[in-house]
From TrEMBL:
Its cofactor is FAD. It comes from Enterococcus eurekensis. This is Acyl-CoA dehydrogenase family protein. Residues 143-236 form the Acyl-CoA oxidase/dehydrogenase middle domain. Belongs to the acyl-CoA dehydrogenase family.
């Protein structure tokens, strides 16, 4: 028997000073190594160019997807029969993707997080078997249509898109906004209010269905490669078997958001580590006053804060993953983790930009991309305020949303 690991953990995860990656299996590390190699080879050389031109690098992403990051048998050793890899692997997959680029990680979370969890938590056994493998193999690209032009934070009570059953069909009408990947998605889970019982239901609308249009939101200053769609549904007709049978009210949507909010806390963890790495690359090469910028005490203090944030966010993510794996995590856990990790990420990307000086505002140093993208992560999947209100309600017993 050998204890050999596919990678040297200290070298592979230098910012993981408390050794959180030690719990990963060799199979998981093998896949994560392949993901990193694919990101380095295919995404890194083109990401700034795609960010600048606000287009998604589909070809590069396809190369990353080929690593089997959702469905490699290596991820299911010891958990055969499970539909998802371990939660710890999930943390480090987001860590890897977001450490390279937040748009790549966001595109993934819309597909492999939001869409896949909607199918798993909302679908019947038959529906899971129909959609699941096509999602995990990336054959079909999915998205998640919840937010509307007039309802963001108050979507639970405000959701205005309607669904009406006519014979054995459903007719959908309304608008959705900010839907990541919507312009190219093969399947679009759309949340709508059933006019008969006023309950929120979900329909997996095939891309290209008559009456459905999705236009990319222009002029974004964060996550520019991700096409966020403004969807219009005009008498969109779908069959009854597209309705996910286990979504029968906002409480079921909340179950999905609880899981996907955890994903975003991991994504923020990856961005924190990514901006630290990008900043380190710069300060160890740039000379001022005859020595490396990284050799000044004031710069090192900022780097140390970034490192501390990296360990703290990883700590939140990994403990959250343990609770998820044990099936005993609650809404407050993921709200707290998203709120904390996004705050620390926001501080870290700003420090990263700062230590790179003027060059920190150009895409050349990578920190600029993290800095701009952080604003979107800070606000999506429950804004800072909404997650703080969930924690505040837990602390005081008083709901302060309204
Ligand atoms: C890049 C990006 C990608 C996204 N992707 C998707 C997606 O794929 N699918 C999807 O369905 N949605 C998506 N969203 C939508 C996202 O979830 C919403 O932006 C978010 O829920 C906030 O809603 P809002 O933008 O309408 O802000 P609003 O709800 O209008 O909030 C504006 C401000 O008011 C604050 N606020 C609101 N209510 C309260 C309150 N009660 N107390 C205190 N403060 C309050 C908010 O915190 C915020 O600061 C995405 C958004 C972005 C920016």
């Amino acid at each position: 028997m050998t204890n050999e690991r596919p990678v040297d953990l200290k070298e592979f995860y230098p910012s993981d000073l408390f050794g959180y990656a030690e719990g990963l299996t060799n199979g998981e590390l093998t896949v994560l190594k392949a993901v990193r190699e694919a990101l380095e080879k295919h995404v890194k050389p083109v990401i700034n160019e795609y960010w600048e031109k606000a287009q998604f690098p589909f070809e590069a992403f396809a190369e990353v997807a080929k690593t089997g990051m959702m469905d490699s048998p290596l991820l299911f050793e010891g958990r055969e029969g499970s539909r998802k890899p371990s939660e710890l692997y999930n943390v480090f997959l987001y860590f890897e993707l977001a450490k390279m680029d937040a748009s790549i990680a966001t595109f993934y979370t819309v597909h492999g997080g939001l869409c896949y969890n909607t199918i798993l938590l909302g679908g019947s056994e038959e529906q899971i078997k129909h959609y699941g493998p096509k999602i995990t193999s990336f054959e079909w690209q999915g998205c998640f249509g919840l937010t509307e032009p007039d309802h963001g934070s108050d979507i639970a009570g405000g959701l205005a898109t309607t669904a009406e059953k006519v014979g054995d069909k459903w007719i959908l009408n309304g608008e959705k906004r900010w839907i990541g990947g919507a312009t190219t998605a093969d399947i679009l889970p759309i949340f709508a209010r059933d006019v008969a019982d006023n309950k929120i239901k979900c329909f997996v609308v095939p891309g290209g269905t008559k009456g459905l249009t999705a236009e990319a939101i222009p002029y974004k200053v964060a996550l520019r490669p991700v096409q966020n769609g403004h969807i219009t549904l005009e008498n969109v007709e779908v069959s009854d078997d597209t309705r996910l049978v286990n979504i029968n009210g906002f409480k079921d949507v909340s179950r999905i958001l609880r899981a996907t909010r955890a994903d975003i806390s991991h994504l923020a963890t990856g961005m924190t580590a990514g901006s630290l790495e990008a900043a380190l690359r710069y300060v160890t090469e740039r000379d001022q006053f005859g020595k490396k910028v990284g050799g000044f005490q004031l710069v090192q203090e900022k780097l140390a804060i970034m490192q501390a944030n990296s360990v703290a966010t990883l700590g939140y993510s990994v403990r959250l993953a343990e609770l998820q794996e044990q099936g005993r995590f609650i809404e407050e856990n993921s709200a707290l983790a998203k709120m904390h990790n996004a705050l620390r990420m926001r501080e870290t990307v700003a420090l990263g930009r700062e230590v790179c000086g003027g060059n920190g505002i150009t895409l050349d140093t990578d920190v600029a991309r993290f800095f701009a993208d952080a604003e979107a992560i800070y606000s999506y999947e429950g804004t800072h305020e909404i997650n703080a209100l969930i924690v505040g309600r837990y602390l005081t017993g008083i709901g302060a949303f309204i």
